[in-house]
Amino acid sequence: MLSQFKIRGVLGALTLFMFALVACEDRVVTNPDFRYDLNRPSVSHIVPVDDAVNVPPDISIQVWFSKVINEASVEPNFSLYPVVMMDTLNSISHEPDGSGVIYAGGEIHGVFRSEDGGQSWRWMSEAVPDLEVTSVLVGSGESYVLAGTYDGLYRTDDAGANWSRIADMDGNYITYMAAHPDHDEIIYATVGTSGVYKSNDSGLTWSAASSGLRPGVTFTSIIIDSYDQNRLFVSTDNDFVYKSDNAAASWQQVRRGLGARNIQRLFLHGPEPGVLFAGSFSDGIYRSDDFGDNWVLATGEISEPVVGIVAKPGNENVIYAGTTSGIWRSPDSGETWIETDSFQDEVVIKDLAAGTGEHGTVVAAGLRGPYVWDGDLFLRSATVDRENLLVAGDFEFEIWSDTLVIVSPEDYHHPNVIADSSTISPYVPSRALQGWIAGGRQGEPPVDINPDASKMTFHPSQQLKNGFVYRILVEGTFETGGNVPKGSRGVEDRNGNTMEEDTDRFFSVEPDPDRVSEYVTGRRSK
User: Fold this and answer.
1) d(Cα 345, Cα 339) in Å, to the nearest integer?
2) Terminal CA-CA length for the chain
3) Residue-wise over 52-78: b if at least 16 C-beta within 10 A, else e?
4) Per-residue pLDDT for the chain (526 aa), expressed as one digit of tens each?
5) Do 222 and 153 share a structural domain?
6) Domain count, the chain
7) What CATH code is carried by the domain that includes residue 240?
8) CB within 8 Å of 219: residues ≥ 6 apart
9) Do 54 and 165 lie in a common domain?
10) Full 3-state SS string of 364-380
11) What single-letter DSSP state applies at residue 192?
12) Is 110:375 a contact under the CB 8 Å cutoff?
């Protein structure tokens, strides 16, 4: 590390070093108390430098501070964590017991969890950090969470701490999943062009349930009738809607009145038995009042693909429809529709889901993360809590300086020791001690560092994740006790440590060497 500093030693100091007789380790100084210092401490240098790319995953982080600092006050204000953003969400699933717990599945960083109705989120798929989730489903009491991906079906039984790949779904991807409302171990899934699959054991095993379905089309969603749970409906991208009255043992097409073949999403209106809505790719929303046997166009104003339809919790007469350019609202059970002025900019919606109970809310999965209905607007809430992202590790501190150090004529620590006035440059603690001993003195030298600096090295306890951007954040002041007001300069403690602005640095860890060609701007391409 010495090579990083410019050597500006004077001839006398170099001569002193040449005659040093004893080599000693650096003397580490912590909790300094030898003087008041009115200079503001700040971060002067960080390695890796900002915007560094292809940093090795076993890197240690080094931070230089402009003053001597109290290491106990630095540790809680330093953090290192991967930058995980909630972008390009494909699916939303509410925990069915009305707890307010929501899971979201996205294409870039996998699965996220909210326990406050979507206001804040935590990353839940760190164990499999590159999941590209197409559909997500949470069971009652979070007894399971299923994540359908382009690489099969994954499951967690411990809220995301561990994941296991439990099925490959015949090499196809899951577009939608629905659980039986009273027995959530029974799950139905639409699987790409493969059809419908059914599980009776919470997703551990699956069997095909596609008798009567036309092969080769993409199956886009599936719903279960809460009045008769043997009755199900399936939508397709090119073959209208199918209905089953025997728990998916067989299917028959229902299309009378449907002008669009490409149905993206289905919705059963709970208060009215038999009322069914179908969101199309191009013609808006269709409605059936007789369990799908006959259909009429409910609204022709919507020209964008309808990707989700839900009712407002607590008032099911209000229905929302998510499209690829925003959200529409019906205040009268689908009789009339108006486009909501809910977003500052045009928003691409990819799924829409509503919870139940007092914590129920409407959440939209969008191209830029989740949006939560607050009663008047859909507000974006894509911030991920960093607390479960923080990288653990060990700290190492030392005094460091690349300029002059005075061996003080006044020794605060050893008042009975004869003072010395030697000047050593550049200052390295071991050399200072060598010079002190070489001069015939014993014990620690009465070093008064002026100017002085501190170096902190953070050693992560595990390798960093390949292909991720990491953030180094050094926050605010490094002291909490003994503060003395210093006017407009803010608060300064007895060691000279004062309030300062947060210091941010970002760097990118090198991609996985086995998959380097798959990474494009921080994510995999399909």
Assistant:
1) 13
2) 43
3) beebebebebbbbbbbbbbbebbeebb
4) 333 322 233 223 323 322 222 222 333 333 333 333 444 467 777 889 888 999 999 999 988 877 667 677 788 889 999 999 888 899 999 999 888 899 999 998 899 999 988 889 999 998 888 789 999 999 999 999 999 998 899 999 988 889 999 999 888 899 999 999 999 999 999 999 999 999 999 999 999 999 999 988 999 999 999 889 999 999 999 999 999 999 999 999 999 999 999 999 999 997 888 999 999 998 899 999 999 999 999 987 888 899 999 998 888 899 999 998 888 999 999 889 988 865 555 678 889 888 876 667 899 998 888 988 877 778 888 889 988 899 999 999 877 654 333 344 444 455 554 444 444 434 445 445 555 555 555 555 444 444 456 788 999 999 999 889 999 998 865 544 444 444 434 455 555 555 556 788 999 998 876 654 444 433 443 3
5) yes
6) 2
7) 2.130.10.10
8) 175, 176, 190, 191, 192, 193, 194, 195, 196, 213, 234, 235, 236, 237
9) no
10) EEECCEEEEECCCCEEE
11) T
12) no
pTM of the model: 0.76
Amino acid at 346: E
Q: What angle do CA 373, 378, 383 make, to 5 degrees?
A: 95
Question: For residues 170 and 186, is the Cβ–Cβ distance under 8 A?
Answer: no
Cβ neighbours of residue 287 under 8 Å, at least 6 residues apart?
Answer: 275, 276, 277, 278, 295, 296, 297, 298, 334
Residue written as token pair 């953090």: 79
Whether residue 20 is contained in a domain is answered as yes
Burial 79-104 (b: 16+ CB within 10 A, else e): bbbbebbbebbbbbbbbbbebbbbbb
Claim to verify: residue 367 and residue 274 sit in the same structural domain? yes
Q: Confirm if 350 and 89 have CB atoms less than 8 A apart.
A: yes
Amino acid at 359: H
**Would you say how long the chain is, in residues?**
526
Looking at the fold, whether 280 and 412 belong to one and the same domain comes out as no
> CB within 8 A of 380, min separation 6: which ones?
366, 368, 369, 370, 371
Is the CB of residue 390 less than 8 Å from the CB of residue 81? yes
**Can you say how many angstroms the Cα of residue 389 is from the centroid of all Cα atoms in its chain?**
8
Residue 526 lies in a domain: no
Rounded to whole angstroms, the Cα distance separating 188 from 248 reads 9
User: Is the alpha carbon torsion for 263, 264, 270, 271 positive or negative?
Assistant: negative
Query: What are the tokens at 276?
Result: 């069914």
Stated as kind and residue range, the H or E segment containing 18 is: helix 11-18
* Two structure tokens written together for 67: 């003053």
Residue with tokens 């499999």: 128
Tokens of 176: 């939608």
Of 330, 360, 380, which residue sits at a domain end?
A: 380
Distance, in Å, from the CA atom of 173 to the CA atom of 194, rounded to the nearest integer, reads 9
- Specify the DSSP class assigned to residue 282: S
